Amino acid sequence: MSVPAVIEAAARNYHMNTGMLEKMVDDLSPEEWLRHPDGNPNHVAWIVGHVVWTRERLLSRIGTQWSKPWLDLFGRGSKCGGDVTYPSKEALLEAWRESETVLGVALESVTDEFLAQPSVQGPPTTDGKQSGVVNFLAIHETYHLGQISYLRSWLGHKGFMG
Q1: Which domain holds residue 130?
Q2: Is residue 46 classed as helix, strand or coil in its secondary structure?
Q3: Which of 52, 97, 157, 162 has the smallest number of CB atoms closer than 10 Å to its CB?
């Protein structure tokens, strides 16, 4: 089975993002995952958890159940820091990899009929339909990977893209 044409670019972006994120965080220490600039910016652990949370929400929307018990720490509107104990770097990356596998299968299984349905609630949509939610969330994920790239530089690491 193949991914419906209306979300094919998004599916490629999700797959590409998986490899990019892995490379972006490979050389970060567990301590660096929890460092962030003064103020309210999120740290790498929160951002990775948030994109995994977003993938879980997308999977649920398109009819596939997959989750981790700690994902609510990273939901929309949740705050980074405080007395929160975040999952380890390893646990977050394992969930990221699992989400890639499950998402790949789910995007191949979603029907054109479902994707054509109007989206009246939830995340923004690029076309007013469920397909637009899938496409928007790929953009959302890429945006957050850009934040991780910035944090890499702030932490003193070589830029990811050169």
Answers
A1: 5-154
A2: helix
A3: 162
